[in-house]
């Protein structure tokens, strides 16, 4: 009963906030299916909020940002103290929030991710006691110099700040006008969790990873207004782009790694360490910046009792940091923009016991080089990346938190250390989706995990070879996540907003990763590499640093001059289809063999026919998804050889057929 009541309060408050703060809603087209080329039902379904965005001119049906497009922006200035083994983190913060919208904002909604650790917080799956804390405490709060109560029971919006919420709403002294800014200052503290498997917390007694730790204004968008969905751990994030100036005060002999660039290396590191770092930034060789013994021996950091590490990052959606007094520190760099010779740094920090991390910097170099020059084929946009031994297998702008895989079953099936490299590569590839592209990971994770998983597979073909890459994808991204056995109620269209699903981890596992990745890979097969990359780059060039939605992506592909593929997007991303083909029969007419291939699952998937002739010769015939455009239920493949057929077998490769029993024919 309590949980039901809490959800009803959440819904009530969201409606109250929407009525108070949201802009007026334009009228929506009564028919959500576009009319294109004179044929009804030829386009993609448009929810009302998407239609409204088109009518307001913030977005365009050609996939471009509209003439009235806007997004809000924050500047975060944070000074914080982290002093292991003390797990209390203390911070002072200023947020300069700019309202670029056409709407006056009478209130601000803050996202407080650390409150997900409170015992009363709403969560989608069980957690350990080590996960629990008292959340984040805001001790001082002011707006434009006016001191305000953070917890104000007299506020008209006090009901929104209910126990267990990860949001906090403040009614402002006066609305922020369009194009106006406000300065928010606060002092806060929180305790790090001891659950090393989570995305942030204490990895050990003297190694901490800090993420999602600071209060921030939640996203206010042109198409949905305030994002008031709670963080319940079953989905990821939807953060605005922001600039960060972060000062981390920590004891000597602790090295701090973070998002962005270190502004004062000479103040916190000894001269020979600074020199090694600078040398690594122009070298392909992996250098050991410091061993654990060097740090313990006082040979790495400056010698003041407390050191202030100053970091800066511009136009990124988040900020994370790590620190340790016993991690090995390695670094190198790689050319990410061959036309200009620009390099990006690759660093790693890990315990000596994690022997599978020894080649991790080289794996990172290769991942950046592949992604910058092949897929997605856009130069890495940041100055560096750092891989930290933790336990979360999670990405952050310019930071990765990965666990060791020594002894895992997945690692045993691949060459030595390859699985650890595979995981790190996946997280590094997230630098483009969601960070470079500003994806709403919470609502549309298929634009984030799906693209990254597709690029990961293409990279694995180079690293592992096609056979091992195919086997890993089928096992890890399709079979083990339960997609082939998924109940029809869980095997839902990819476009389904994931923040509308609660407690549906299996749907997240196969819908947003494997199914979405296969959709992109099938599109690549349909279009061909050159046209596919043109469509992808058109989308990325238009929306880099902005906040694209799926319709912006689909329409950008269709508007890139490489054909309209609405039928395909509708099939893969909007439809209730699954992967199941069958050989319906074979007949021969005048020396031509005609193979009937049925598609009971309805998915527009590529396939190969493997034909074995009576003389023992074998032929492989490929069909792209285009074969299903005119008739999604069946197709015929004609082969003129003048030789008797012995067997015909369907080979769907990584497009795992959920019912392979009917995939062959024998004479």
Automatic annotation (TrEMBL):
Residues 365-572 form the Peptidase M1 membrane alanine aminopeptidase domain. Pfam families: Peptidase_M1 (PF01433). It comes from Sphingorhabdus contaminans. One of its GO terms (molecular function) is metallopeptidase activity. Keywords: Signal. Residues 1-28 form the signal peptide. This is M1 family metallopeptidase.
């Amino acid at each position: 009963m309590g949980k039901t009541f809490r959800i009803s309060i959440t819904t009530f408050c969201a409606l109250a906030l929407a009525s108070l703060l949201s802009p007026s809603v334009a009228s929506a087209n009564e028919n959500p299916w576009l009319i294109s080329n004179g044929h009804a039902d030829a386009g993609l379904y448009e929810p009302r909020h998407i239609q409204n965005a088109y009518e307001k001119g913030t977005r365009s049906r050609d996939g471009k940002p509209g003439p009235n497009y806007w997004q809000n922006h924050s500047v975060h200035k944070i000074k914080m103290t982290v002093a292991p083994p003390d797990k209390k983190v203390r911070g002072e913060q200023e947020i300069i929030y700019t309202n670029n919208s056409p709407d006056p904002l009478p209130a601000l909604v803050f996202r407080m991710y650390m409150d997900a650790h409170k015992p009363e917080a709403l969560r989608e799956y069980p957690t350990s006691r080590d996960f629990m804390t008292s959340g984040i405490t805001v001790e001082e709060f002011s707006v434009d110099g006016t001191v305000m109560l953070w917890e104000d029971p007299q506020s008209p919006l006090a009901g929104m700040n209910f126990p267990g919420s990860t949001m906090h709403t403040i009614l402002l002294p006066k609305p922020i006008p369009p194009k106006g800014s406000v300065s928010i200052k606060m002092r806060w503290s929180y305790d790090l969790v001891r659950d090393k498997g989570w995305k942030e917390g204490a990895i050990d007694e003297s190694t901490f990873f800090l993420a999602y730790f600071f209060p921030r204004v939640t996203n206010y968008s042109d198409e949905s207004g305030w994002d008031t969905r709670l963080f319940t751990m079953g989905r990821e994030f939807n953060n605005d782009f922001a600039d960060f100036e972060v000062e981390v005060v920590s004891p000597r002999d602790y090295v701090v790694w973070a998002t962005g660039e270190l502004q004062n290396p000479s103040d916190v590191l000894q001269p020979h360490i600074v020199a090694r770092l600078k040398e690594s930034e122009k070298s392909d060789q992996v250098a050991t910046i410091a061993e654990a013994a060097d740090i313990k021996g006082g040979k790495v950091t400056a010698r003041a009792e407390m050191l202030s590490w100053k970091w800066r990052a511009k136009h990124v959606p988040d900020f994370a940091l790590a620190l340790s007094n016993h991690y090995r520190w390695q670094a190198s760099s790689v050319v990410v923009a061959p036309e200009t010779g620009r390099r990006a740094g690759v660093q790693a920090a890990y315990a000596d016991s994690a022997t599978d991390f020894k080649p991790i910097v080289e794996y990172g170099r290769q991942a950046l080089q592949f992604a910058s020059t092949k897929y997605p084929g856009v130069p890495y946009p940041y100055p560096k990346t750092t891989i930290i031994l933790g336990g979360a297998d999670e990405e952050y702008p310019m930071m990765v938190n990965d666990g060791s895989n020594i002894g895992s079953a997945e690692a045993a099936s691949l060459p030595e250390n390859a699985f650890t490299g595979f995981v790190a590569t996946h997280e590094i590839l997230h630098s483009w989706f969601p960070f470079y592209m500003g994806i709403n990971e919470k609502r549309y994770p298929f634009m984030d995990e799906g693209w990254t998983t597709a690029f990961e597979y293409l990279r694995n073909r180079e690293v592992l070879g096609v056979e091992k890459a195919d086997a890993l994808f089928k096992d890890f991204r399709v079979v083990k996540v339960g997609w082939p056995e998924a109940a029809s109620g869980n095997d839902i269209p990819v476009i389904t907003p994931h923040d509308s699903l609660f407690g549906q981890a299996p749907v997240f596992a196969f819908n947003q990763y494997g199914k979405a990745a296969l959709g992109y890979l099938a599109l690549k097969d349909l279009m061909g590499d050159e046209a596919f990359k043109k469509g992808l780059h058109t989308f990325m060039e238009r929306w880099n640093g902005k906040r694209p939605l799926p319709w912006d992506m689909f329409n950008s592909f269709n508007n890139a001059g490489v054909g309209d593929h609405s039928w395909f997007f509708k099939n893969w991303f909007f439809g209730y289809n699954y992967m199941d083909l069958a050989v319906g029969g074979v007949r021969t007419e005048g020396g031509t063999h005609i193979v009937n291939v049925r598609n009971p699952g309805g998915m527009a998937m590529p396939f190969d026919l493997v034909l074995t002739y009576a003389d023992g010769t074998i032929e492989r015939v490929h069909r792209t998804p285009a074969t299903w455009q005119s008739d999604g239920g069946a197709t015929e493949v004609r082969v003129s050889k003048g030789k008797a057929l012995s067997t015909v077998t369907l080979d769907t490769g990584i497009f795992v057929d959920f019912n392979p029993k009917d995939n062959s024919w024998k004479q």
